[in-house]
């Protein structure tokens, strides 16, 4: 378990009854969290009708042998901005290491590398992100809404997006069918 109060490299799972339909059953890979705020990429929902090949075509990149993987809804902030969460075996000019668990890249060089078969061994593409201002996520974590769990990369690469929310809780030893929609007060 991390000794830091920050959630970088962990997953946030939306609790039932979170109160914001944009985050219902959300699974967010936390890529940055510190005194200045937080940034995460949603990995629990894909964008209907949009795959990697269509995205590459928009950038005039030949998809080569790259699979036409789904593109994820990364979050409501800057929904046209793309991100790639990937294994740490590849790095580009803007790649950020996320606590040694995965990496985050946001420039076109990672897309070109994937299309050429020279990119990371594991990757996931998303448009948009979830962002929190200074202290906002810390405050949200004190009330009903989010559950944090360790950054098991199995959730990123080995589980279908539609199953990530359930699997995230199960990996943490929780049966999501037993979760309540609210918390009580004592």
Automatic annotation (TrEMBL):
InterPro entries: AlgH-like
CC terms in the record's Gene Ontology section: cytosol
Family (UniProt): Belongs to the UPF0301 (AlgH) family.
Organism, as annotated: Sphingomonas psychrotolerans
Protein name: UPF0301 protein CVN68_01615
């Amino acid at each position: 378990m991390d000794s830091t109060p920050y959630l970088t490299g962990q997953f946030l799972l939306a609790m039932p009854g979170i109160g914001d339909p944009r985050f219902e059953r959300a699974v967010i890979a936390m890529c940055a969290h510190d005194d200045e705020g937080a940034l995460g990429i949603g990995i629990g929902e894909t964008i209907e009708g949009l795959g990697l090949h269509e995205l590459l075509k928009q950038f005039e990149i030949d998809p080569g042998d790259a699979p036409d993987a789904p593109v994820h809804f990364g979050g409501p902030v800057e929904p046209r901005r793309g991100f790639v969460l990937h294994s740490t075996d590849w790095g580009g000019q803007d790649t950020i290491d996320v606590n040694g668990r995965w990496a985050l890249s946001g420039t076109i060089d990672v897309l070109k590398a994937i299309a050429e078969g020279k990119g990371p061994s594991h990757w996931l593409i998303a448009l948009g992100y979830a962002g929190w201002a200074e202290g906002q996520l810390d405050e949200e974590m004190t009330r009903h809404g989010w559950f944090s769990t360790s950054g098991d990369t199995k959730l990123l690469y080995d589980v279908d997006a539609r199953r990530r929310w359930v699997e995230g809780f199960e990996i943490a030893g929780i049966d999501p069918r037993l979760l309540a929609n609210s918390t009580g007060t004592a």
